[in-house]
UniProtKB/TrEMBL annotation, chain A:
Phylogenetic lineage: Bacteria, Bacillati, Actinomycetota, Actinomycetes, Streptosporangiales
Ranges that cross the membrane: none
Protein name: Xanthine dehydrogenase YagS FAD-binding subunit
A Pfam family per the record: CO_deh_flav_C
UniProt organism field: Streptosporangium subroseum
GO MF term (any one): oxidoreductase activity
Alphabetized UniProt keyword annotations: Oxidoreductase
Automatic annotation (TrEMBL), chain B:
Lineage: Bacteria, Bacillati, Actinomycetota, Actinomycetes, Streptosporangiales
Entry keyword annotation includes Oxidoreductase: yes
Listed InterPro entries: 2Fe-2S-bd, 2Fe-2S-bd_dom_sf, 2Fe-2S_ferredoxin-like_sf, 2Fe-2S_ferredoxin-type, 2Fe2S_fd_BS, Aldehyde_Oxdr_Iron-Sulfur, Beta-grasp_dom_sf
Entry annotated with the keyword Oxidoreductase: yes
Protein name in the entry: Xanthine dehydrogenase YagT iron-sulfur-binding subunit
Pfam families, alphabetized: Fer2, Fer2_2
Composition-biased stretches (Gly residues): 190-208
Domain 2Fe-2S ferredoxin-type: 7-83
Organism annotation: Streptosporangium subroseum
One Gene Ontology MF term: oxidoreductase activity, acting on the aldehyde or oxo group of donors
From TrEMBL, chain C:
Protein's recorded name: Xanthine dehydrogenase, molybdenum binding subunit apoprotein
PANTHER family xref list: ALDEHYDE OXIDASE 1-RELATED, XANTHINE DEHYDROGENASE
Biased composition (Low complexity): 22-40
Residue intervals of the Aldehyde oxidase/xanthine dehydrogenase a/b hammerhead domain: 57-166
Classification of source organism: Bacteria, Bacillati, Actinomycetota, Actinomycetes, Streptosporangiales
Region (Disordered): 22-46
Species name: Streptosporangium subroseum
Pfam family for this entry, one: MoCoBD_2
Amino acid sequence: MREFGYMRATDVTEAVSLLATDPEARFLGGGTNLVDLMKTGVENPALLIDVRELPLDRIEVADDGALKIGATVTNSDLAADPEVRRRYPALAQAVLAGASGQLRNMATVGGNLLQRTRCGYFGDTTQPCNKRVPGSGCPALTGEHHNHAILDWSEHCVATHPSDMGVALAAFDAVVSVHTADGPAELPLSEFYLPVGDTPHRETALPPGALITGVTLPAAPVAARSRYRKVRERASYAFANGSIAAALDVEDGTVRDVRLAFGAVASRPWRARKAEQALTGGPATPEAFAAAADAELAAARPLTHNGYKVPLIRNLVVAMLTELTQEDAR
Amino acid sequence: MNPTKSSAISLRVNGETHSLTVDNRTTLLDALREHIDLTGTKKGCDQGQCGACTVLLDGRRANSCLQLAVAAEGRAVTTIEGMADGERLHPVQQAFLDFDGYQCGYCTPGQVCSAVAVIEEHAAGWPSAATADIRPETGPPPLDDNEIRERMSGNLCRCGAYVSIVRAVAEAAAQAAAVRESAGDTTPDGGSGSGTVPAGGSGARVTA
Amino acid sequence: MTAPTVSAPSTPMAVPSVSAATAAAGTTTSPAPTRTAGSSGAVGTSRTRLEGRAKVTGAARYAGEVPFAELAYGWLATSTVARGRIRSIGAEPVLAMPGVLAVLHHENAPRLKPGVGMMGPDATLQILQDDRVPHVGWPVALVVAETPEQARAAAEALVVTYDEEPHDVGFSSGHPGLHTPDGGPRARTDTEKGDIEAELAASAVVVDEEYTTPEEYHTAMEPHAAVARWEDGRLEVIDSNQGSHAVAQDLAKLFFLDATSVRVRSEHVGGAFGSKGLMRPHLIVAAMAATMLDRPVRVVLTRRQLFSMVGFRPATAQRIRLGAEPGGRLRALDHDATSFSSTINEYVEQSAQPSRVVYAADALRTRTRVVRLDVPTPSFMRAPGWAPGSFAIESAMDELAEKTGLDPITLRLRNEPEVGPASGLPFSSRNLIPCFEEGARRFGWTDRDPRPGTRRDGRWLLGTGMAAAAHSAGTAPSSASITAEADGTFTVRIAAADIGTGARTALTQIAADALETPLKTVRVKIADSDFGPAFLAGGSMGTASWAWAVTEAAAALREKLALVDQIPGEGTTARADTTELVMAMRGQERYAFGAQFAEVAVDVASGEVRVRRMLGTFAVGRVVNPLTARSQLIGGMIMGLSMALHEEGIRDTASGGLVNGDLAGYHVASNADVPVIEAGWVDDPDTYNPTGIKGLGEIGIVGVAAAIANAVWHATGIRHRSLPIRLDRVLTAGTAIENSIGGGAVTY
């Protein structure tokens, strides 16, 4: 780890201007990902701007019913929040499944959105990696990739986004608030992550020097009937092999509203809009759920060793929506 | 601007304030072990992947290996050395000893710190990934074995003392509940939409 | 423990020793069986750990935690290529970095004596001696600096260039490089009894399958650490190891020092599982740097470095052929075990061992083959050979039970041998059948419907499985001294190690009884090479070996005390060394046995497998401390669960390195993976070693993976013959049960 300077910002404007003083500066939130990456040499900032104590630690209900979550709210506070648990239970469940209690106490909402992939080649600086060193190659394509992407990858990178929280946020149409030198701005989560293409090192559409200040969840009645399920290689404290956030509103056996998002299948949390379209207005049956999953997964291009993710996600869609249907019927 | 690469900080550890100059790269874990000679906090992976370095930061458990010391200034740190009340072990420590909740002992300080926090987090009404129904109206789940297992999963134990650890945590939690009850504080908060558990709030019973 | 240059025999050590089938003559010179009852009665009663308070308060200091004035910090730089030669090491710019004191590498490091090794020449000790790179993660330089941050930054900044050569890290049972290990006469790699092909051909029922296990890593929670310094003309070391005396001996030899001028201590060790049995690079480079700089130097390996420098269990591929009569009696048992080693040492994973011990068969053949690859040197990991070998043979026995329509326990009872199946030697004791009976009763095995896929709980298919377990229970020479102090207390000194086993407490109990004195009057000091030779904490032989030395010393002391009226101020001391006693032991087969039971839940739609409960019943000789014994057995079972479902080092064929060399990538069981587990034992009197102790550090892991795999079959009808039973494998394999209870579980 190279030497670096450290400064603590007290307000958002100051944080943004401090970052601008050094092209190699980074914001430091909970540090659970950045400090780790600095230890492994993946990140080498010259200056850290500590934003953890910025007054962005509130969760508030806006006049229009939207939930506004500050960027420095910790995972723990997010998951414990009664409004979140009541109105967006899948989000609380996703966060609870996301990391250990210790990490959740440290990790922030803003940092979670920006966490980097857990691809083993990315984390090992002795290996080529297009995301870390553009143009160096992607050993995962032909190497170890049993937990890599099946959707929307490119030959430049097959890594997945590791966030659980992000999957629930994607399902609920989250909007990311940012602050730049030009002032505040908003960015829908659906546009927040860039497609892999030939620039896997460019992960987000955040303007240069921007600070994430919060996330807004629009009011969505369907979200109150939502769930998150994560499948991983041990029962806890592991990244997902596949996960799903699902919300479902059924009336008289017909799907009125549905939200579906998948984790660990692509370079970003994957909103399953094709599946949602296929389901909306149709019957809430296991057959329809399976067909909708198939519609979404038709675009899947599994690699040699991760083809299991296609039936995994399909089975999760059917199981989760079936559960939610039965719950709805009660 | 050219900020220095080291910082003069004061760290409040187990109620005592330590003034020291640290390399900005120094983690809280290394500051404790190498600067203050509090080696009870262990370094198992140095990457947030094992939990051996768990301490309480402002009353909440955290991985001290991922916490820069310079960024911990002004925060209250409680380490394993601050758990006992003089010669009297913390009930969690006593339970680990009595139930043999350890073997080599290297993950133990982290397990103990984590367990102390788990009991407080549960009492504050926090749900976990093992909680079937997380709606606030449902109230906190009983701290059964599955809840303890999930909540303690951020602390790896390679000797495989988990079975005894779960027993020890359950025992200590039962004692803590009895203490709360006798103090008239019978209902854990957070169960009825009383608002976000404040930082360093209910989870902060153990403070420096 | 065994020499990397020889294979791991059932007597896993090279020092004079006795266990299993290698013992020599009579026990007439051995002492009367230990005074157990009638004395203070400490043995057999549960005691919390004597160092428990220190451990739960954080006061216990491990090797990397002892402070020294003027301490310097060493950080290793490791190779990034799998095979080749170092072309250049850019030390100059690194020496100019803040705080850097030295850069040690093959061109300037002290020369070490070649051929040194605890069990024969060990090339992994020859650190920084030449430009040869045998694998990714081989130490190529040590950077020493004033602070750990400076040392780390400098080691990371060090530019090393290589002349790279083509490498091969790909293992399979068909690898053309597989050969018979050249391990010398003690390394029994092959056994043959009867005509295996003829018996197979004549068998009514045949099982012929290959079973594979992946690279598995010890991942003790405490990273290997050492601090070395010169003091009063001695090299004083605090190290994390399993045997301070043996490490001190090798360290002295390696540095051309007199044995008395090296002292190694390791009071608390944060887990080992075999990885700390041999001297490891951190200690060697710490000693080098302390010598060059003449100040204390501490070197702690990083978690990632641990994945390339302290050994691991190599992957195995094992073909099992069983031939049986319709009634289940074995006519043929053929166990063909393959694994790999590095190019510099030939470590052999002796996976065929269990098949030489557990079942009678008319024809019995075991073969062990190894291939040398460009990988780090594997080493013994908890129950070397026994753990992966039992997965193969115990899975195959379950398949045979299925084919013969027999209950798995019944099948095993029909193949219970009278004498060692391969050796023909008698067993010192064999209480496997009581383990089956007691285990089956407590687990509720008898109610089991043998058909797969008959039980379901929601999305979970349920199944139960069992397996037999065996592990060698040897004894090795050790020495101990006991001092009767003037104040009426006793001080025991023995270079034992407590790596979490509870050895310190157990030896105190042993000593108290042997001295017929209350426990609180006995103080046991361990883990100091100055205490004299003692076997290491390994091979399930530590407590049995040390306890004998302690009881001998106690007997000698009592004789001495009988002759003195008053204890002088410096106390009265007696020493004992069991070398001759051990050498005089008669050849017998001595093993711990056990029966493992597991219940699993399998969701074939997600591939998730959860173990719902486990129960193990063991025959482990005399149990000294039931509290810690149970912990150790359960700990072994949990490592077995972890082996069954989680653990897998994934090696990248292109680079030759591990892709998942950290604790987020290499999964060991977390608390949430572990259910209620019960461990118990049956009476198992066995005074072949007069202490009656068999050791129970390893038996707990043996058979667990098979019991779980067999339970997964019982739940789903699918055999998983490759570990770990990963969710993608389960999901892809699905279930063999037609319309499994309540409709197809795989697809909707």
